[in-house]
Specification:
single chain; alpha+beta; 6-stranded antiparallel sheet; 5-stranded antiparallel sheet; about 55% helix; rod-shaped
């Protein structure tokens, strides 16, 4: 999980680490590549700002000056004082108003009489030495309100008449310094500003030298084209602009220059700002990467944890993920697979312990439980009894009525046994028409009572036959008790079996307990040992066939295939210098070699298309799984090795252990040859059967690589000798 966390975090982090410097470099390069164009663009944008600010500033100032002139002129006493030439009274009226004006704008009030003679001038409440304009400047036209620029003093002023009734007594001029107006614009915009009249005369400038090399006529001409007309004399340090400026009834030209150095500063500030934004974006992206990693890892961690639990054997583990995305969908599929796996294993376990026909426990489970019960009775000094039952005359019933009625009778007897025993008892189908029951904590006397109930239940039932005639079937029951009759599970079964034979010998439909003296009279010690050994052999063979039935229930092809492998595998073995024991073990291994296919899902086992790599994993595991399943029924090691290694290749490329040549057990090599041959001549979901000759050619091609060439030759001899038999081998699905 730590590696997973680090890997996912790096996958999110590395792109961030790469993208941020790359993006920063691209931005810097583009700024450098287009710096001159950016400077011009910034200058043009700045000119809009300056033009708007100058016009706004002038018009605001004109509005303020107009309101002040109207306010002062509305004082009737001032008009009377001006008309009478009373300087003292004029000063008393105007001076307080001048004091209240904004000192920073250096606004000035000038009072003139009708003849244009200055009476008083005030700035910030104090008289000035020089009037704003002389007598010649006040003409008859000036007796009306108007706005003007006064070049001599570089001021913006508003003239307003003083009325004494219907007569004009004089003129008020309220003005503000152009220096203050233009300097405030320069401070706020960093732009040099000049004002020219229509004759090209400069009225005022924040930098007189700046426009020295500029043709004023061109500048004025450009201004007539409209606002923001661009004018560049070729000087690379500034961009020049001109715009008409209306002041009252007069029109002037406003010229201003944008410094490229200041534009460069703005470019650098913009670049640093963008880089700062990129850096901030990078930090946010890193944080989001970390959070995203945590958010992504949380459901993945849940999936990994559930997988580890299932791998450890906890099949109830599930991934509880509610993310509403593909990960939740993946978790849903994972949980579905886990459910299917649990169901499949449960079914496999049930198939391994339940007899498919009768529903009782099978031979294998019976012995497992008997071992446990004997061990428990030994530990706690307890007792237990075993009933061994055989159906009387069942062969006659089965031969006369057929297997369908025979199977129906077996099912009914199993139901009667199940109904006659306690819940703590273990009823099982021992094999064929034989049944056995484990009775824990049951003495011999109590076992007889239980056996009689069971015998009476079967004897009292009438079984249906082919001709709809009721036919009675009975049970002969033998009883053996631990520890009085035997001390081991095998001996216990052997003695119960012997008691059952005594019941049959005494007339059938009887219950008999094991009696050592009676048995000694009928059997000597060697007979008893031989009987025990025969029972052991019967136990193994019945377990083998029970497991083969379980495999058959999963895949019909596998059962017929296994019988073929067992038959021809032993035929090959009989032509080799091996023992009868080896041949018997090989027969068992042939029947069980595909038992591990119980663990392969149906979707893989019956798939018509070629398998993909993940689907090969359960295929490669089935030999080792089959050996583990077979181990539980107790065959020799030779059988287990033959099952485990029957998919090893002679050149060492097989599975599961990559064994090579003679290191592969002989039984496994024999099964490999017969297994492959029968698979090739059989129809499978993914292909049609091959012809016999084609299959033999394929075996020959792979002799020495996949197969033992000597065994291939022996199989060819056998098939050549039994060609007619081979031609009659039925394919799966045929009647």
């Amino acid at each position: 999980m730590a590696k997973l966390r680090a890997s996912l975090f790096l996958k999110l982090l590395i792109p961030t680490i790469i993208i941020i410097p790359l993006l920063t470099g691209v931005v810097s390069y583009l700024f450098r590549l287009n710096s001159q164009q950016l400077i011009r663009r910034i200058a043009v944008g700045k000119s809009e700002e300056v033009a708007s600010l100058v016009n706004l500033r002038f018009h605001e100032e004109i509005k303020t000056l107009t309101l002040l002139s109207q306010l002062i002129a509305s004082d009737k006493e001032l008009a009377t004082a001006v008309k009478g030439g009373n300087d003292l009274q004029v000063a008393q009226i105007v001076s307080p108003i001048s004091v209240k004006m904004d000192r920073q704008d250096r606004q000035q009030i000038d009072v003139y009489n009708r003849e244009g003679v200055s009476i008083k001038s005030f700035a910030a409440g104090k008289p000035t030495k020089q009037p704003l304009i002389g007598p010649a400047a006040i003409s008859g036209a000036s007796l009306n309100q108007q706005v003007e620029l006064f070049k001599s003093e570089r001021r913006l002023g508003v003239t307003y008449p003083l009325k004494d009734g219907s007569e004009t007594a004089g003129v008020i001029v309220v003005s503000a310094s152009l220096d203050d107006i233009l300097e405030s614009i320069k401070r706020s915009t960093g732009t040099e500003v000049s004002i020219f009249n229509n004759k090209g005369a400069e009225i005022h400038s924040t930098n007189r030298k700046l426009f020295a090399g500029v043709k004023i006529e061109d500048l004025i001409g450009r201004a007539q084209d409209g606002p923001l007309a661009k004018f560049e004399p070729g000087n690379g340090e500034f961009s020049y602009f001109a715009e008409p400026l209306a002041v009252g009834e007069n029109t002037y030209t406003l010229g201003y220059a944008i410094s490229h150095a200041r534009a460069n500063d703005e470019i650098r500030r913009a670049m640093f700002q963008i880089i700062a934004y990129i850096g901030s974006f990078g930090v946010v992206l890193l944080i989001l990467s970390w959070i995203g990693g945590r958010v992504l890892l949380s459901p993945i961690r849940a999936l990994v944890s559930a997988s580890e639990h299932i791998a450890g054997g906890d099949l109830t583990a599930r991934a509880d993920i509610k993310t509403g995305d593909e990960i939740e969908e993946l978790a849903t599929i994972f949980n579905w697979m886990a459910d299917r796996l649990q169901l499949r294993i449960t079914q496999a376990e049930e198939m391994a312990i339940i007899d498919s026909l009768t529903g009782l426990y099978n031979h294998r489970y019976f012995y497992e439980q008997l071992d446990k019960e004997v061990e428990r009775a030994e530990r706690f000094n307890g007792v237990l009894s075993v009933l061994f039952c055989d159906i009387d005359n069942f062969k006659v019933f089965n031969d006369q009525n057929g297997h369908t009625f025979g199977d129906s009778a077996l099912k009914k007897i199993a139901q009667l046994i199940q109904m006659s025993v306690r819940t703590l008892d273990t009823p099982a189908r021992y094999g064929g028409e034989e049944f056995a029951v484990i009775l824990p904590e049951t003495t011999s006397k109590e076992a007889v009572e239980a056996a009689e109930r069971l015998r009476a239940a079967v004897a009292g039932h009438q079984f249906k036959t082919r001709h709809n005639i009721e036919f009675p079937l009975t049970l002969s029951v033998g009883i053996a008790t631990y520890p009085t009759d035997a001390e081991t599970p095998t001996e216990l079964i052997a003695r119960a079996d012997m008691a059952m034979y005594q019941a049959k010998a005494d007339g059938k439909n009887l219950v008999r307990t094991f009696n050592e003296q009676e048995m000694s009279r009928r059997f000597n010690d060697r007979d008893v040992e031989r009987e025990i050994e025969n029972i052991r052999e019967k136990m193994l063979l019945k377990a083998v066939f029970s497991l083969a039935v379980a495999v058959d229930a999963r895949d019909r092809y596998t059962r017929r295939h296994s019988e073929f492998v067992a038959k021809y595998g032993t035929a090959i073995a009989r032509r080799l210098p091996v023992s009868e024991r080896f041949i018997k073990d090989l027969s068992i291994a042939g029947l069980l070699h595909d038992a591990g296919k119980i663990g392969i899902p149906d979707s893989i086992l019956n798939k018509c298309d070629p398998l993909i790599e993940p689907e090969w994993e359960p295929i490669r595991r089935h030999p080792s799984l089959g050996a583990e399943i077979a181990r539980n029924i107790g065959p020799d090691a030779t059988v287990l090795k033959s099952i485990r290694h029957h998919h090893e290749n002679y050149d060492g490329t097989g599975y599961p252990d990559n064994l090579r040549g003679e290191k592969i057990p002989l039984g496994a090599r024999i099964i490999a040859v017969v297994d492959a041959f029968h698979a090739m001549i059989s129809d499978r979901p993914y292909r049609k059967a091959m012809g016999v000759e084609a299959a033999l050619d394929e075996l020959t091609k792979k002799s020495g690589t996949q197969f033992d060439s000597g065994l291939v030759d022996i199989l060819k001899e056998i098939l050549s000798e039994e060609g007619l038999v081979l031609s009659k081998v039925r394919k799966p699905g045929e009647a």
